């Protein structure tokens, strides 16, 4: 019998709760729609969109420039490494222009 009362109470609470919840949802939805139509909001959204577009263009340009630099550096390093390997295969001593020689007084 207690289980029947519990189920009935839950069903009544659900019905009234969903009705009140739905009304509040509709109220919030209407308020949000009104707010979205205000000129200050639409102007702000447009300004943010423009700013984001400019930012995207600036980032794209910076990434392209950095990519070009990386490509140039990698190409140079690979060419130098290729030359070293060719020299080693041909029996020439490898000279590393970037290497620092130990100072004689350091020994």
Please provide a written account of the structure.
The chain has 107 residues and is mainly α. Helix content is 80%, strand content 0%. It has one domain (11-88). It contains two helices and no strands. The protein is elongated. It starts with a helix and ends in an 18-residue tail after the last helix.
- Please tally the β strands and state the result: 0
Q: How many separate helices?
A: 2
The amount of beta strand, in percent, is under 5%
Q: What series of H and E elements makes up the topology?
A: HH
Indicate the structural class: mainly alpha
Please give the radius of gyration in angstroms: 36 Å
Largest beta-sheet characterization: none
In short:
The chain is mainly α.
Topology readout:
Blueprint: H1 2-36, H2 39-89
List keywords for this structure.
single chain; 107 residues; mainly alpha; 2 helices; 80% helix; elongated
């Amino acid at each position: 019998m207690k289980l029947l009362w519990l189920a009935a109470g839950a069903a009544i609470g659900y019905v009234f709760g969903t009705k009140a919840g739905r009304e509040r949802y509709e109220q919030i939805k209407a308020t949000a729609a009104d707010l979205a139509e205000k000129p200050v909001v639409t102007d702000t959204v447009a300004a943010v969109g423009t700013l984001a577009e400019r930012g995207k263009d600036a980032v794209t340009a910076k990434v392209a420039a950095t990519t070009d630099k990386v490509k140039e550096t990698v190409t140079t390093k690979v060419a130098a490494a290729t030359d070293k390997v060719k020299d080693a295969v041909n029996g020439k001593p490898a000279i590393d222009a970037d290497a620092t020689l130990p100072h004689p007084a350091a020994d």
